[in-house]
Automatic annotation (TrEMBL):
Protein's recorded name: DNA repair protein RecN
SUPFAM superfamilies: P-loop containing nucleoside triphosphate hydrolases
Alphabetical list of NCBIfam families matching this protein: PRK10869.1, recN
Keywords annotated in UniProt: ATP-binding, Coiled coil, DNA damage, DNA repair, Nucleotide-binding
Keyword DNA damage attributed: yes
Free-text function comment from the UniProt entry: May be involved in recombinational repair of damaged DNA.
InterPro entries from the UniProt entry: DNA_recomb/repair_RecN, P-loop_NTPase, RecF/RecN/SMC_N
Originating gene: recN
Length: 558
């Protein structure tokens, strides 16, 4: 519900404040007074693109602000949560246009983009103007209307869930089938590469170990000579180093009692002698294990050459990287064997989901088709009431490939000039947005919405001069339909028809006034006597007659 609308510096509006009521709000005024300017300003907070030419004062910014009461609206609550916006009981939507043309939008003082603003506005306001054909001609709206009347919500929810599962499983199956084709193309080559690696049967870090071992074997003679020489210097020969250290230790030991530091130094000398003796033993052990083996060198060289060739082929630098490639190839080969079973399983799932979708779709289709004749009859009766006796609506329900909204292609067809007594025989039924005029579409939309108002969660309904071209009884019936709509939701209507104005719960009058040297638009809510006078003027002119006043009084009181 739109509770309050504030407009500053827009077109010929300097400053305007409107407090709307629940129920039916009527806006009247002379042609050119600025009624549609108010709707233009409202459009800005509903996400329409801004135009700097709309600024009255080029040195001040334009500010449009709307206060909406949206408590209990789950769709609005979900939108706010999705966009990380506060969830208060009242929503404040603001649009600012700077003198340089830059536009900014806010929801509860949080900056938002136009897309977010438009998404929220669709949940808050349904604005219908002449020549606005989007809603009534939109296929989603048409389907939603039929579904609301057919009460398909629960089964449609199940259908959409099954449809999503079906399509996702089909997508998974197609991906798996594509993988299978790719695997089959690569299978022979992968098998060759795997067999090549498996035949070499490498162990972890094997090539690096071979390289180290070859260095030892290739230099075995030099290593053994060096070890023999070092070992001989330490333990053999005329003056072995270990024996010299032992003699020096014995010599120093004779004087350890004469200085406090000598015992520790002698102990270190003895440790050095023991350590060198151990080193000599270790060198001798190593020497025993190092032997030149030409046959083994040839064998290791061949294996390392084979390993390096595979490294170069696969563009890697280590044994472990080759082993990783071998494992990946093994997994691909296993996948070829397993994928056929997975595909069979998915094919069965696809068939089951499709079967369920078709069954639910047929159930929804039957409910829709059952509802269509009554809907057509009610709309066509309403069209007669609103001054379109030769107009007819026809709902086409044809089978289609299962889609998100069912197995039916639903389209509203319209003929505005069906000859009397030839219902259904003119052959002129065409999509509504291609054959209906702005006024016809507006009244058709009113008739449709009046039928589904109790079934669909419609937001605030705003009608901008949809009564153009009608008068008398037709205008009265339009007023009655709007009044019925307003029983459970807010309706705001700009009208020139006294029969409609008389149905108001709140009547606002738009007028021009001279402020200094400028003409400005203003608005005020009328009291009962003012309403009677305003409606009487709509009936008979600027100076209403007594009969017009009496007629206006009867309209207001009834």
């Amino acid at each position: 519900m739109l509770q309050h609308l504030s407009i500053q510096n827009y077109a010929i509006i300097d400053m305007l404040e409107i407090d709307f009521s629940r129920g039916m709000n009527i806006i009247t005024g002379e042609t050119g007074a600025g009624k549609s300017i108010i709707i233009g300003a409202l459009n800005l907070i509903l996400g329409e693109r801004a135009d700097i030419s709309s600024l009255v004062n080029k040195e001040k910014k334009c500010v449009i602000e709307g206060h909406f009461q949206a408590e209990g609206n789950e769709l609005v609550k979900h939108f706010l949560a999705e966009n990380d916006l506060d969830d208060p009981t009242q929503l404040v939507v603001r649009r600012e246009i700077a003198p340089n043309g830059k536009s900014r939008a806010f929801i509860n003082d949080t900056p938002v983009n136009l897309s977010q603003l438009q998404s929220l506005s669709e949940l808050l306001v349904d604005l219908h103007q002449q020549f606005d054909t989007l809603s009534i001609g939109d296929n989603n709206f048409q389907v939603n209307v039929v579904d609301a009347l057919a009460d398909t919500h629960e089964v449609l929810t199940d259908y959409k869930k099954s449809f999503r599962l079906w399509k996702q499983t089909e997508k998974d199956l197609a991906l798996l089938q594509q993988q299978q084709l790719q695997f089959e193309k690569e299978s022979d080559y992968n098998r060759f590469q795997y067999d090549e690696l498996a035949a070499l049967n490498l162990k972890e870090n094997e090539l690096e170990t071979i390289e180290a071992e070859l260095k030892i074997l290739s230099n075995a003679e030099g290593i053994k000579n060096t070890l023999n020489r070092v070992c001989g210097e330490l333990t053999e020969g005329e003056q072995p180093i270990t024996q010299q250290l032992k003699s020096l230790s014995n010599l120093l030991n004779s004087y350890t009692g004469f200085h406090k530091d000598l015992p520790e130094i002698n102990k270190r000398l003895q440790s050095a002698q023991i350590e060198l003796s151990d080193i000599a033993d270790e060198l001798e052990r190593l020497n025993d294990h190092i032997n030149y083996d030409g046959e083994k060198i040839e064998e290791l060289n061949e294996r390392m050459s084979a390993g390096y060739k595979l490294q170069k082929k696969h563009g890697v630098q280590s044994t472990n990287e080759l082993l990783t490639i071998q494992k990946e190839l093994e997994e691909k080969l296993d996948a070829v064997l397993n994928i056929a079973g997975n595909i069979a399983s998915l094919e069965a799932q696809v068939a089951n989901h499709q079967k369920k979708v078709l069954a639910l779709g047929e159930k929804i289709s039957q409910a829709r088709k059952k509802q269509v004749p009554a809907f057509e009859k009610s709309v066509n009766q309403s069209l007669v009431q609103v001054g379109m006796p030769n107009a007819r609506l026809q709902v086409s329900v044809l089978p289609q490939v299962p889609a998100n909204n069912g197995v039916d292609a639903i389209e509203f067809l319209f003929d505005a000039n069906l000859p009397t007594g030839q219902a259904g025989k003119s052959g002129q039924f065409k999509p509504v947005n291609k054959v209906a005029s702005g006024g016809e579409l507006s009244r058709l939309m009113l008739c449709v919405k009046s039928l589904v108002a109790e079934k669909m969660d419609l937001p605030t309904l705003i009608f901008d001069e949809i009564d153009s071209g009608i008068s008398g009884e037709a205008a009265k019936q339009v007023g009655i339909i709007m009044k019925t709509l307003a029983a459970n939701r807010q309706v705001i209507c700009i009208t020139h028809q006294p029969q409609i104005a008389g149905k108001a719960d709140a009547h606002f009058f738009v007028y021009k006034e001279l402020s200094g040297e400028k003409v400005k638009t203003n608005i005020r809510q009328l009291g009962t006597d003012e309403r009677i006078t305003a409606i009487a003027r709509m009936l008979s002119g600027e100076k209403p007659t007594a009969a017009a006043l009496e007629n206006a009084r009867e309209m207001v009181q009834n």
